[in-house]
What we know:
- Helices cover about 45% and strands about 25% of the residues.
- It has helices at about 15-30, 55-65, 90-100, 105-120; strands spanning about 30-40, 45-50, 70, 80-90.
- A four-stranded antiparallel β-sheet has the order 1-2-4-3.
Amino acid sequence: MSEPTPKKSSLYDKLSEKNKIIFLAGVFEGEGSFGLWSKWKTKKYFACSVEMTDKDVVQLFYDYFGGCMYLCKRRKEHHKDTWRWRINGKGALNTLEKMIDYLCNRRKEKFANVVQCLKISS
């Protein structure tokens, strides 16, 4: 019986926790989104997601923050399948709070507005 192949260590694995957050924030800046979503037009909830063709990068978000990760079949014939990571509610708020210092001002302002809306609606 053969032994399992050990997972190859990547440069990401060698980063400090702060640098992992900075790296993930950079990917999120380019490929991520967040906002308020409604379920059955009655209850709003906060969510953030990253969608891209690179499964290994999407996996980093799932491994670090939790949430869910799933395959999105290509939408058009000339597109590729993508992978999506998504986290909702308090988990999404905690995720953005960890990355917010490393996001652009536009996203910082949007996050502040979303947090304000959530405070008003609760």
